[in-house]
Amino acid sequence: MSLADLSANLLYVAFIAYLIATFVFGGAVKGNKNGSFKSEKRWGKVAITLTVIGFIANLGYFFTRWGATGHAPLSNMFEFTTAFGMTLVGGFILLYLLYKTPVLGMVVLPVALLIIAFASMFPSEVSPLIPALQSNWLAIHVSTVVVAEGVLAISAAAGLVYLLKVVDLSKNSKQRFWLEAIMYSLILVLGFVISSTYFSLTNYEANFEYVDKEGQPAEITYNMPPIFGMNEYVALTDDAMTPLAETPAVINAGKLTTVTWSFIVGTILYWLIRLIARKRVTAIFQPFVKNVNLNLMDEINYRSIIIGFPLFSLGALIFAMIWAQIAWSRFWGWDPKEVWALITWLFYAAYLHLRLGKGWQGEKSAWLAVVGFAIIMFNLVAVNLIIAGLHSYA
Amino acid sequence: MEKVQCQCGHVNPPGTDLCESCGRSLTEKEQNNTLADMRYEGTARRSQTYNKSIVDKIWNFFSSVKIGVSIIVVLLVAASIGTILPQQAYVPANTEATIKAYYADVYGVPGQIYHALGFHDLYSSFWFIALVGMLAISLIVASLDRFVPLYRSLKNQRVLRHVSFMNKQRIYGKGPGNEDTMKKAEAKLKELKYNVSTDKNGLLAEKGRFSRWGPYVNHIGLIIFLFGVMLRMIPGFYVDETLWIREGETRAIPDAPGYFIESQNFELETYTGEDEEAVFGEAIERVGNVAKNYQTDVVLYQKPEDSLPGATDDMEVVDEYPIRVNQPLKFDGYAVYQMDFRLDELKSMTFALTDKETEESFGELTIDLINPDEFYELENGATVELLGYYPDFDGFDNGEPQTATPLPNNPGFLVEMTTPETPEGETSFILIQETIEPFGENQYKLSFQNVETRDVSGLTIRKDKTLPILGLGGLIFMIGVAQGMYFNHRRFWIQQQEDGTVILAGHTNKNWFGLKKDLDQVSEFASLPAYQDQQEETREQDDKKGAELT
Question: Range of B19's domain?
Answer without folding.
Answer: 1-42
